[in-house]
Amino acid sequence: MGRQPCCDKVGLKKGPWTAEEDKKLINFILINGQCCWRAVPKLAGLLRCGKSCRLRWTNYLRPDLKRGLLSESEEQIVIDLHSQLGNRWSKIASNLPGRTDNEIKNHWNTHIKKKLRKLGIDPLTHKPLSTIEESHQERQLQPQQEQQEQENSKEVAETSLESTINEVMREEEKSTLMFDPMEAMINSFSTDEVPLIEPDEILVPSSSSSSSSSSSSGSNNINNILEEFQLPDFEWQLGLWDNDDFTSWDLDPPRMVLDQDYSWTTM
DNA sequence: AATTTACACAACCGCGGTCCA
DNA sequence: GTGGACCGCGGTTGTGTAAAT
Description:
Layout: H1 19-32, H2 40-44, H3 50-61, H4 72-85, H5 89-94, H6 101-118, H7 131-141, H8 144-174, E1 178-179, H9 181-188, H10 222-228, E2 256-258, E3 264-266
Antiparallel strand pairs: 1-2, 2-3
The chain binds a DNA duplex through residues 1-6, 14-17, 36-38, 50-52, 54-56, 58-60, 87-90, 101-103, 105-107, 109-111, 215-219.
């Protein structure tokens, strides 16, 4: 005999999460921690499967997530790690604190792939695109100027791919890599990076969900949801979320240090 | 102003590895 | 040792929004 069945999929809600669902999930995890996802939806009063809850939490609600686009240096790290690891997004993400595998994967597919191609680099192999392909492209519709641009950028790319990661490492080293979780929390909830809404738009879900709460999950303002929980008074901590046992949360902010291999460790 | 197209990203699906009874 | 549930990962799809026509 194995374990109990995960979750019967009958009657489970799918699609974008509403603000009220987010609230329930945050509330539950705050109280109970993220022990076993199978039980979360039932106990939190959500008509979702545990898998969906886990995904929502890890990819969107987790307070240690950075928001906004990847920085240049983060992009370079992703490119370099991808050349070594391939599509192992979770491994790549583990080297970028505050970033999720899903986020990196999306960013790769929508931004970096194009960028590399534009630079004349094959995103799969990280090698310069074949001369055959190039000449084909050239014959197709490359005006002279664009050709020149491509060649110039290719040179830049070839050198940057090899050297930028080292530059980034040096830059990171320079900043001594002392990490203040409280500051990180503030930064990760920067209103610059989160769509602002007017006070009268703030969702205060009642027992019945409003029509606005059924809009895209992307439009849910996580700040407001967290605010509703008075989370600014709660000391969100990096590293906290890796701990399965939330009863053992240490409210003393840990000092985080970035290792040479870009992994965060507590002091 | 209305419609179409392109883009960005959240969420889902299915698979493989691990764990547990 | 075995079968089945759980978890995490990577690929893919769906949806909302912005830009173009």
